[in-house]
Amino acid sequence: MTEKTLRFPAEWEPQSAILLAWPHADTDWAERLGEVEDTYIAHVAAIVRFQRVLICVADDDVEAYARARLASNRIDMARVGFITLPYNDTWLRDTGPITLVGDDGFELLDFRFTGWGGKFEAGEDDRLVQRLQEAGIFSKSVLQSIDFALEGGAIETDGQGSLLTTWRCLHERHPQASREELDQRLRDWLRQDRVLWLDHGYLQGDDTDAHVDTLARFAPGDAIVFQACDDPADPHHAELGAMADEITALCTPDGHPYRLFPLPWPKPVLDGGRRLAASYANYLVINGAVLMPAYDDPADDAAADVLAEAHPGREVVQVPCRSLIWQNGSLHCISMQLPAGLI
């Protein structure tokens, strides 16, 4: 692997597949398994219209059940693959491989996964990338294990050397490290020229300590899409307003302001009085489409319009995600893209 050619691609670059893990009765989804299975079916149905999907399953019974559910919904099973391995939960954005692309292959970065700072058991999830590599499903790839806690949802790249992240999350994972130390490590491991830090932004119901993929995302052509809040009575208003000011002040490497695409604010989604983290910023870009979390909210269509403008030439597909935010994540959180050629 030629070190100098390695690059961290943007999500909108060509992909070979989307990696998922099927929910089952031994995951945290057990209490509402039927609802979340419906979301996964809708998600897979949307993906296979455009590309392949690779689904982790816990055992042969889970695979047989997933196959039956998907096939009964008339999904193109020729574009669906399965791999059997153990996992604690299904948040593949944070447990799957972060892939660097080189002229002669790929480097899979296997950072430590600690259950978002020790909040949940994560022993099997921490070994997921290694097990995927050992299964031989990746081509022309090497694995680099890095003893440093970092989740895929905590970072966002434009594919051209700029990384976007939040200080709240990285500081929570590494309280003894200075911003300068963390900045250098991220640039070195992820082959970035610079790190753009957001000091503001959070969502109630988010247990990731403010992952950037719930707040702000790069888009093609020097653009940033971000979750806005236009309700002065909402407890998020001041914090997301401060984040919007930070994003407005950011500049591209050549000194120009970014083109900005604020997303509308959905109505509060409550579960037994608990506010759930409904964010339109947690969308997934795939080949030819943007898959958008929908919350059965009047703002869903307005959010789709914003994403269509930010990602021209891609179809925006709404996927119902109210079931996912019950467990504090959404569409992007359960999905990890695999670059073209890796599968």
From TrEMBL:
Cross-referenced InterPro entries: Peptidyl-Arg-deiminase_porph
Key words, A-Z: Hydrolase
Pfam families referenced in this protein's UniProt entry, alphabetically: PAD_porph
SUPFAM superfamilies referenced in this protein's UniProt entry, alphabetically: Pentein
PANTHER family registered for this protein in UniProt: AGMATINE DEIMINASE-RELATED
Name assigned to this protein: Agmatine deiminase family protein
Annotated organism of origin: Luteimonas terricola
Organism lineage string: Bacteria, Pseudomonadati, Pseudomonadota, Gammaproteobacteria, Lysobacterales
